[in-house]
Amino acid sequence: MRKIFSILVFSVITLLSCGSDNDDNVSQANVTFNFNHNWDTSVVTNTNFNTIQYTNANGEQLSITKLRYLISNITFQKSDGETFVLDGYNLVDVTNNTNLSFTPTTTIPTGSFSKVLFTFGFNNDANYNSNYPDLNATSWSVPAMLGGGYHFMQLEGKFIDNTTTETGYAYHAIRAVDNSGATQVFENTFFEVDLGEVTITNNATFEVNMNIAEWFKNPNTWDLKVLNNMLMPNFNAQVMMFENGQNVFSLNTVNQ
């Protein structure tokens, strides 16, 4: 009888142990980043494209017809400076509703992190055309005369110009290059986005927002009547994009 009782107790303990052996006690966590988009308070998806319905800080009415951008170098940093860099990069393509969610193959240890970072675009160590055949196949590379490497973002659409005509714009972000002298001069225009502190206890999903309106407003009020096309070789325009991009991304929630 005691033997049977012992077996029953062991079975119950085993079942309870199995029942609690779930994601609540992981020591290594998978993380997913979902990229959401808005124009100030209005949600933006590709179903909102191709219609003049947004007004930028300069008072110009515009539409979006294309939006895709690159994020890379996702990094979790502890308060003592220890970092965990996750493999991979992601070309977010809102136009085709692809890659709006990205789960790196690398896991991270659970615990508290003082910063969660990612790079908008590629840093200089990664920004070489020969590195990524898949990006070359998506027409993402930059011509050699503009320094090579890759786009950071392609944002396109139409706006109402001062003749009330719908005119196309192409707000393309790359590494800034000055071709006015005997040699090319570059300025870094990739930037690091800091999503702030987080404590990871489980597999986690980060809901990241891009406020598209910010590309046109802060600190540089963008005048589409002046800056609408041929922006890739425009050194000053690329620096302005870099400056405006500092307030574009934010973290909404972390679900665990």
Total number of β-strand segments? 20
**Shape category:** globular
The share of residues in helices is 10-25%
The class by helix and strand makeup works out as mainly beta
The unreliable regions are 1-23
Beta-strand percentage? 35-45%
Task: Give the topology string: H per helix, E per strand.
Answer: HEEEEEEEEEEEEHEEEEEEEHE
**What's the number of domains?**
1
* Major sheet size, sense and barrel closure: 7 strands, antiparallel
Cα-based radius of gyration, to the nearest Å: 23 Å
Distance N terminus to C terminus? 45 Å
Average pLDDT level: 91
- Give the helix tally: 3
InterPro entries: MbnP-like_dom
Pfam families: MbnP (PF20243)
Protein name: Copper-binding protein MbnP-like domain-containing protein
What does this 3D model show about the protein?
The structure is a single chain. The protein is mostly beta strands and 256 residues long. It has helices at residues 2-20, 133-136, 235-244, and strands spanning 28-29, 31-39, 42-43, 54-55, 61-62, 66-77, 83-85, 89-93, 101-102, 108-109, 111-113, 115-120, 153-160, 166-173, 176-178, 185-187, 191-194, 198-200, 204-211, 249-255. The chain has one domain. The protein has three helices and 20 strands. The strands form six sheets. Strands 6, 7, 8, 12, 13, 14 and 17 form a seven-stranded antiparallel beta sheet that branches. The protein starts with a helix and ends with a strand. This is Copper-binding protein MbnP-like domain-containing protein. Residues 29-224 form the Copper-binding protein MbnP-like domain. It comes from Flavivirga spongiicola.
